[in-house]
């Protein structure tokens, strides 16, 4: 039986990456020996999260050792030079890989991974994929795979909140050392100069009752993080719609640091009775079932899993014109220019006048392409290469 390891920042916390990782790990555990190496604390362990208790998965909790102060200073100095001044070459990138990941930490991670005698190790998320690439030379005989959950633009665009353009070449140089890197859409695959494989994320929840399409409710779901989900744009757009329409309402489900900003906007528009913010819930199906139209207003997405969830409940979908959204939905989606709240308002109004039953049937059919059974077959083929 092949031994598979997922190396991940966290599995016992709320988040889309954690949820998808758990679903894939649970499915693979039916045929493989699966271990998750996580940076969570042992006290964080909660296998009831994402139904992890349903699978025979091993868990290992890892912590990096400290780096001596003098060495840390030297490493940070070189790292600064690389990011700001030095030419972006393979040689300088390799030095940066070591300066940003000092030997004490790197060797400790290598030792942890070696003792598992794994056949395949998957670096979950771009930063850990690069860490895995730095360790790959010592992991002889092990297939190393990166799994990138953010879009190319979100990682390396000029306004990136994650990595930024200054490290784009470094990531490209290092990820080329892996046997394969999984990305979430063909648009991103075309951006990378090293071997990639597109594997979509699967539908990770069991759909609830199909929407009846008679509630006049828009729905949006996601973390209230800075700029990411574009809920500020959505509130602005709904305000424009509300000047023409007095019936429709908007539910936004999530939590995060921008909640105060959203509440301030809602109050400023006098829409407290029509825009409702709801906390995160494990029973998100109830909101999909009660909605009539789903809206994804994100400025970037690695893979808009909520789109699949919404379609599985029979919801028509409005989305920003992200490459991943267009790849997921094709002609089915109703699109607006990314960041343009006025165009979003136009689409909100159009969605109130569609043949809802016809569009709902198309949504459910489209969602079938993202079943766990379909996606896991691609994972198994990758692991057996």
Strand element count: 13
Q: What is the CATH class of the largest domain?
A: Alpha Beta
- Which architecture of the largest domain does the CATH hierarchy give at level 2? 3-Layer(aba) Sandwich
Supply the number of helical segments.
16
Determine the strand fraction and express it as a percent band.
15-25%
Helix/strand-derived class?
alpha/beta
Q: Give the number of domains.
A: 2
Stretches where pLDDT is under 50 for at least 5 consecutive residues are none
Radius of gyration: 22 Å
And the CATH topology of the largest domain? Rossmann fold
* Topology pattern, helix = H, strand = E: EHEEHHHEHEHHEHEEHEHEHEHEHEHHH
The chain-level mean pLDDT equals 94
Query: Which superfamily, in CATH terms, is the homologous superfamily of the largest domain?
Result: Glycogen Phosphorylase B
Shape summary: globular
Distance between the termini: 14 Å
Strand order of the largest sheet: 3-2-1-4-5-6-7
What characterizes the major β-sheet? Answer: 7 strands, parallel
Percent of residues in helices: 40-55%
Short description:
The chain is of the alpha/beta class.
Task: Describe the structure in your own words.
- With 385 residues, the chain is of the alpha/beta class.
- The protein has two domains: 3-199, Rossmann fold, CATH 3.40.50; 217-370, Glycogen Phosphorylase B (Rossmann fold, 3-Layer(aba) Sandwich).
- Helix content is 41%, strand content 15%.
- It is built from 16 helices and 13 strands.
- The strands form two sheets. The protein has a seven-stranded parallel β-sheet. Strands 10-9-8-11-12-13 form a six-stranded parallel β-sheet, with helices on both faces.
- Helix 12 (305-312) links the parallel strand 11 (293-296) and strand 12 (317-320).
- Helix 2 (69-84) runs antiparallel to helix 3.
- The protein is globular.
- The two termini are 14 Å apart.
- The mean pLDDT is 94.
């Amino acid at each position: 039986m092949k031994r598979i390891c997922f190396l991940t920042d966290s599995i016992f916390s709320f988040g889309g990456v954690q949820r998808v990782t758990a679903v894939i790990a649970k499915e693979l555990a039916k045929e493989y020996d699966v271990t998750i190496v996580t940076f969570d604390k042992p006290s964080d362990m909660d296998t009831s999260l994402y139904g992890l208790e349903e699978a025979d998965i091993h868990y290992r909790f890892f912590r990096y050792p400290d780096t001596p102060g003098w060495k840390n200073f030297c490493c940070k100095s070189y790292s600064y030079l690389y990011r700001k001044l030095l030419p972006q070459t393979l040689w300088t990138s390799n030095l940066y890989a070591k300066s940003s990941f000092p030997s004490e930490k790197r060797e400790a991670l290598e030792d942890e991974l070696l003792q598992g005698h794994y056949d395949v190790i998957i670096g979950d998320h771009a930063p850990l994929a690069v860490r895995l690439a730095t360790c790959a030379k010592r992991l002889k005989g092990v297939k190393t795979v990166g799994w990138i959950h953010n879009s190319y633009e979100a990682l390396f665009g000029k306004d990136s909140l994650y990595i930024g353009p200054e490290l784009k070449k470094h990531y490209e140089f290092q990820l080329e050392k892996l046997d394969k890197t999984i990305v979430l859409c063909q648009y991103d695959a075309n951006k990378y100069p090293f071997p990639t494989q597109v594997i979509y994320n699967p539908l990770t929840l069991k759909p609830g009752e199909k929407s009846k399409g008679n509630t006049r409710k828009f729905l949006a779901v996601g973390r209230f993080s800075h700029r990411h989900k574009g809920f500020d744009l959505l509130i602005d757009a709904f305000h424009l719609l509300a000047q023409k329409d007095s019936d429709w309402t908007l539910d936004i489900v999530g939590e995060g640091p921008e909640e105060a900003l959203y509440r301030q906007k809602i109050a400023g528009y006098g829409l407290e009775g029509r825009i409702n913010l709801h906390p995160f819930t494990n029973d998100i199906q109830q909101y999909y079932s009660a909605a009539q139209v789903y809206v994804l207003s994100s400025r970037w997405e690695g893979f808009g899993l909520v789109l699949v969830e919404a379609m599985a409940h029979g919801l028509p979908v409005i989305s920003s014109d992200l490459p991943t959204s267009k790849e997921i939905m094709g002609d089915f989606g109703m699109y607006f220019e990314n960041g343009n709240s006025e165009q979003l308002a136009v689409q909100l109004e159009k969605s109130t006048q569609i043949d809802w039953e016809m569009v709902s049937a198309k949504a459910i059919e489209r969602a079938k392409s993202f079943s766990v059974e379909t996606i896991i077959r691609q994972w198994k083929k990758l692991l057996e290469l």
